[in-house]
Amino acid sequence: MSILEVRDIRKSFDKSEILKGISFSLEKGEILSIIGSSGSGKTTLLRCLNFLEHPDSGSIAVNGEILYSGDEPDSQREADIRKKRLHFGLVFQSFNLFPQYTALGNVMLARELLAKEAPDYKSRKKELHQQIEAEARQLLEQMGLSDRMGNYPHQLSGGQQQRVAIARALALQPDILCFDEPTSALDPELTQEVLRVIRELAERKTTMIIVTHEIAFARDVASQVIFMDDGRIVEEGPPEQVIGAPTQERTRRFLESYNQ
After folding, report:
1. H-helix or E-strand containing 255?
2. What are phi and psi of 92, to 5 degrees?
3. How far is it, in rounded angstroms, from Cα 69 to Cα 249?
4. Judging by DSSP bridges, how do beta strands 4-13 and 57-62 pair with one another?
5. pLDDT digit string, tens, across residues 56-107
6. pLDDT score, position 73
7. Deepest of 24, 135, 206, 235, by most Cβ within 10 A of its Cβ?
8. Is there a contact between 98 and 185 (Cβ–Cβ < 8 Å)?
9. How far is C-alpha 43 from the chain's CA centre?
10. Sequence-separated (6 or more) residues with CB below 8 Å from residue 136
11. Which is more confidently placed, 73 or 20?
12. How far apart are CA 136 and CA 124, in angstroms?
């Protein structure tokens, strides 16, 4: 069974149809790279998967559990949205860290908020806090930020902020880690810093969806590549096919623009 099944997702804003029937599946441990020009619908697709936007129709299932179905109104209840988001960890292109929290505080925050909802929270408050802090520290150490845990976002470089954002996304142990152009706000040196972290996650068989303009990186790391254009999947397959030997003219034109 696929870890993720996306079927015929459509999304419009006002009268503009942004996603025009997107379907794909993802296996556990696979890395899917989504490439395409600006405005092709890549970010909207990720936002629909994370329920930051509501699809208009189609279905989304994780591990066989239907998270969204246009045919089932109950799957769209606001009360369930937060639980559904736990299946996905999202790393934004602009970091989106909370400026009033340290790096450690940013990574701990979501876990602590969830812990407060547990029936036995009051009796286990100290124990839970210590556990959450220990796991957050471990994640930041994995990101190479052992000496930056007490720093606030404005005291960190862009690459360091993005690594904190990755640790925050991993803190809730999502089924699928999603990246929305994670290096677009970074200079070349910091870009390589973040890409190294993603490569390490790939080596650990982390299931990921990566929207990126780093075509060489997508070719080297991805299990599967999707090329999107005008809200549709134009071509999909292994990177050696889609990037190395595309069959569609629109894919070829897009890739040639990066090689000029």
Report:
1. helix 249-259
2. -80, 160
3. 33
4. antiparallel
5. 999 999 999 999 988 876 656 666 777 888 999 999 988 899 999 999 999 9
6. 61
7. 235
8. no
9. 10
10. 104, 107, 108, 111, 167, 171
11. 20
12. 18
Q: Which helix (H) or strand (E) holds 195?
A: helix 188-203
| The two three-digit tokens of residue 92, written as one number | 């934004």
Amino acid found at 189: E
Distance from C-alpha of 78 to C-alpha of 70, rounded to nearest angstrom: 14
Amino acid at position 107, single letter? V
- Judge whether residue 131 has pLDDT over 80: yes
C-beta atoms surrounding 221 within 10 Å:
20
DSSP 153: G
Q: For residue 21, which phi and psi values (nearest 5 degrees)?
A: 90, 65
Which helix (H) or strand (E) covers residue 208, if one does? strand 208-211
List Cα–Cα distances, 27 to 6, 76, 91, 101, in angstroms: 12, 25, 20, 35
Contacts of 243 (CB under 8 A, 6+ apart): 35, 215, 218, 219, 225, 255
Please tell me the distance from the alpha carbon of residue 145 to that of residue 194, in angstroms, as a whole number: 12
Question: In 3D, which of 143, 150, 1 has the Cα closest to residue 63?
Answer: 1
**Beta bridge partner(s), residue 225:** 33, 237
Neighbour tally for 223: CB within 10 Å: 16
* Structure confidence by residue, pLDDT tens digits, 199-229: 999 999 999 999 999 999 999 999 999 999 9
CA dihedral 244, 242, 64, 115 (to 10 degrees): 70
Q: Which of 81, 86, 74, 83 is nearest to 174 (CA)?
A: 86
Mean pLDDT value of segment 233-238: 97
Work out the average pLDDT over 104-130: 92
More confident position, 176 or 14? 176
The two three-digit tokens of residue 105, written as one number: 């505080």
